[in-house]
């Protein structure tokens, strides 16, 4: 009986240790923005099949890094390859809701700064705080949008 208990306790300790060691290996999702219109490919090669052209500023999720290429996912979930040189460190987000009010402050009751519609790309001015992200429209208007209404962060 004592042996069974010590085996279970030992297994629990080993499982906890394995989970603790694995935690640093899990990495946060990483995003980049497309620097200029670029071709997306089905493989990490310019000889690969050209899938489509992605617009400048579009945020993409980095999945795999391979030499001069990134395997990326767009907001629709499409996975493809893009040349590393086509991406920028500049952070952008893409509106996922049909229509959103971008607020003058990070509060649902704050006055509306401007309105944005689905698929509009906005520059991320500040990283998210308390569920909101500060953004800038290409015309210069700035405001706050709820993180649940955008993709790319």
Notes on the protein architecture:
By secondary structure, the chain is mainly beta. It folds into two domains: 59 residues, Roll (SH3 type barrels); 60 residues, SH3 type barrels (Roll). Helix content is 14%, strand content 46%. It starts with a helix and ends with a strand.
Q: What is the fold's blueprint, element by element?
A:
Elements: H1 2-22, E1 30-34, E2 38-41, E3 50-54, E4 59-66, E5 69-73, E6 79-83, E7 87-88, E8 92-95, E9 99-103, E10 112-117, E11 121-129, E12 132-136, E13 142-146, E14 150-151
Keywords:
153 residues, mainly beta, SH3 type barrels, 1 helix, 14 strands, 14% helix
Low-confidence stretches: 9-27
CATH class of the largest domain: Mainly Beta
* Cα-atom radius of gyration: 21 Å
Structure class: mainly beta
* Beta-strand residue percentage: over 45%
If classified by CATH, what would the architecture of the largest domain be?
Roll
Give a brief description.
By secondary structure, the protein is mainly beta. It has one helix at residues 2-22; strands spanning 30-34, 38-41, 50-54, 59-66, 69-73, 79-83, 87-88, 92-95, 99-103, 112-117, 121-129, 132-136, 142-146, 150-151.
């Amino acid at each position: 009986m004592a042996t069974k208990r010590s085996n279970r306790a030992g297994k629990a300790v080993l499982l906890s240790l394995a989970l603790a060691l694995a935690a640093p290996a899990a990495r946060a999702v990483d995003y980049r923005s497309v620097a200029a219109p670029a071709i997306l490919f089905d493989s990490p090669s310019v000889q690969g099949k050209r899938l489509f052209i992605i617009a400048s500023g579009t945020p993409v999720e980095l999945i795999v890094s391979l030499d001069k290429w990134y395997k990326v996912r767009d907001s629709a979930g499409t996975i493809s390859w893009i040349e590393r040189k086509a991406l920028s460190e500049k952070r952008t987000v893409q509106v996922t809701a049909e229509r959103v009010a971008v607020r003058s402050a990070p509060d649902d009751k704050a006055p509306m700064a401007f309105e944005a519609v689905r698929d509009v790309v906005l520059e991320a001015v500040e990283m998210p705080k308390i569920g909101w992200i500060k953004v800038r429209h290409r015309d210069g208007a700035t405001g706050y949008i709820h993180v649940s209404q955008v993709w790319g962060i």
